[in-house]
Amino acid sequence: MFLRLLFVLLIALNIAVGAWLLLGQDDVHGRAATDAGVPELHLLSERPPAPSSAPAPATPATSMAAATPTSPASSAAPVAQAPVPVPALPSPPSRPNTYTCMALGPFATQTDMRNARAALSSQAARMRQRQEQTTQTTGWWVYLPGGGTRDKALELGRRLAAANVGEYFIVSSGDQSNTISLGLFKDPANARRRREQVVAAGFPAQMSERTESVAEYWLDVVIADNGHADWRNRVRGVGSHSTGCF
């Protein structure tokens, strides 16, 4: 019984010594003596000696170099300056082409119109030709209305001859049959004088304009560069007026 108790005490003693060896010695197991984040204290005697701050003796060459002043240009290496970019000048805005649209004519024949088109081929941006029908005055007619029948027209003619009104004839066909024609005039002034002469002789003469439908030829052109083309020096004898562009 005593031996068994002694054996248990030895075991407990061994356990206590082992625990003290493992947990009680901080330096053996690398434990820090201070808390984390707190700087460690050192004695003055533990600090390493400070290095000597006495300047080293200068050699004559070094002293002379130190005594010689250096200019800023020689002490500093030249720095290459980057070229300053020059802003590009804005190019002038291009002027849009402007166009003048005109109708040239009327031309008397298609040949005249084609010649004008060939003369303007180097100046016109676009061209087109067209034909129109128009009413043209052919003259002025002085006449006496007939009596409706051939016999009445002949009787009126004998009365004109008796009054010394000559140069007349009786229309025998068409819409104006049995009418007494007193003359066809290009100039309206001459037609008025003839009418007044017959009226003075006692006959109710009348005057009317004679027209006919004729063809006209036109050339429509579109000229660029603000219409400064000298088309008048190339095409003569015709007029012009503005027209819609095409």
TrEMBL record:
Compositionally biased region (Pro residues): 48-58
Compositionally biased tracts (Low complexity): 59-78
InterPro entries found in the cross-reference section: SPOR-like_dom (IPR007730)
SPOR domain sequence ranges: 138-205
Top-level taxonomic group: Bacteria
Span list, region Disordered: 43-78
Entry-linked Pfam families: SPOR (PF05036)
Protein name, as recorded: SPOR domain-containing protein
Gene source species: Dyella japonica
